[in-house]
């Protein structure tokens, strides 16, 4: 599949005010689109009605269903036969939990429609309502009806909904196929829907990470790198980056994974729950690499952000962050784990059943996982092991092999040694995953654990940094020569400081040379064809 376009085509000068509003809506610039549509809707005639309909689409996309009803109900009284208005009124009422009214409006709109485009859109929203109620057979019937008559963006949305239905049936091969078809349909359509594109890339990135599918990860990475993400799709862009980083971890690409986690944290801006999610993933990676002190520091940072977050209206991502905190705390500092289960229990739940990523099942599995590991660590060990076993089974049924492997590791840490074999089976396609390399790393370690130099084990990326440091390269020079960020190099150094129990670069070099690790100059290793070293010129400035 060819890459997605770098940007949307610029509107031509002859474009009408309504046409400009539609272009802004497609690009995800919802505030601008709504302002332009409202100005046009103040006029009279068909264009004013079309502008009101577009404004309602913007409000729907932003979740302001009350505003849609207030805007379209008066128009609906005057234009009772207008099927598009009835369809949008119907889906707004449905999302406001007036389900019977909403479905009646949508079905009446479909029957009254005089053209294929309007009928296909009504069928799509009827399918979406059935999917929201998890009536998958009915949803599939209506989405097939929509696809039979659809074109352009509506056709792409129908394919994406088919993917979500497949995911709800736990058919991940079908889900990935439909999502790719939806991307292809969007690319070939004259209409743009950047929000839908972002949702699809997000979904494919989750599949790539959780099903350990390297080919899908490469595909998403190639598409995401040339896609101009709209500001309205921040959450999707963030989650895509995070899951592409997790896909790197699956294959032991630790340096690249840290770079992508860093990019995701920068993208999160002031969204504390999102920043905390990145820190939790980094903390768990440090834990797997055998660095409990660095892991605990990252966990503490995430905990600080999560405590400061506004929990009045959490979304599924927020709920999962609390549960992830419970899991990680139970592995690192069990005495603190109960806090996060308590916070999760107290937070109002926001999963209304129509997440396109079947968030309810993921939260259910993660809740079992978190409660199980906390109980196994500080409560009823037997009950905890039973919950962990249920979580592992549910993750496997969902097709999330990566998370199922983590649950198996937690079972092993809780004393069920036979679970270790499940890790290798689940991650058979990811033999370089740190969990496969060191299945015992799930065992909780004391925050005060200190590793002595005679038992140091260096990862390839750590050895590269240490050798460069011994050869005189600075952090800045390493970052420039290897195409990495200084943040990533310093993270490697922090882990090395911890492993050698030192506090400065000079002390680290002295310890490495004293303990005879057999280090050779970086340029000699490069001449011998070490794939980890790209270029290294001699320099003698230690930072």
Overall description:
By secondary structure, the protein is an all-alpha fold. Among the domains are: 292-442, no CATH class; 453-527, Winged helix-like DNA-binding domain superfamily/Winged helix DNA-binding domain (Arc Repressor Mutant, subunit A, Orthogonal Bundle), CATH 1.10.10. It is 69% helix and 0% strand. Helix 17 (316-332) runs parallel beside helix 19. The chain is globular and about 85 Å long.
What keyword list fits this structure?
0% strand; disordered C terminus; globular; disordered N terminus; 543 residues; mainly alpha; 28 helices; Arc Repressor Mutant, subunit A
Low-confidence parts lasting 5 or more residues at pLDDT below 50? 1-14, 351-358, 442-453, 518-543
Rounded mean pLDDT is 80
The helix content, as a percent range, equals 55-70%
- What distance separates the N and C termini? 46 Å
Q: Tally of extended strands?
A: 0
Q: Work out the radius of gyration.
A: 26 Å
Order of helices and strands: HHHHHHHHHHHHHHHHHHHHHHHHHHHH
User: Which band does the percent of strand residues land in?
Assistant: under 5%
What structural class do you assign from the helix and strand content?
mainly alpha
Number of helices: 28
Q: Rough shape?
A: globular
Largest sheet: none
List the helices and strands and how they pair.
Elements: H1 17-26, H2 30-41, H3 46-61, H4 65-78, H5 83-95, H6 99-112, H7 116-132, H8 136-149, H9 152-168, H10 172-188, H11 194-210, H12 214-224, H13 234-250, H14 254-268, H15 272-288, H16 292-308, H17 316-332, H18 337-346, H19 359-378, H20 381-398, H21 401-413, H22 420-426, H23 434-437, H24 460-470, H25 475-482, H26 486-500, H27 505-514, H28 522-527
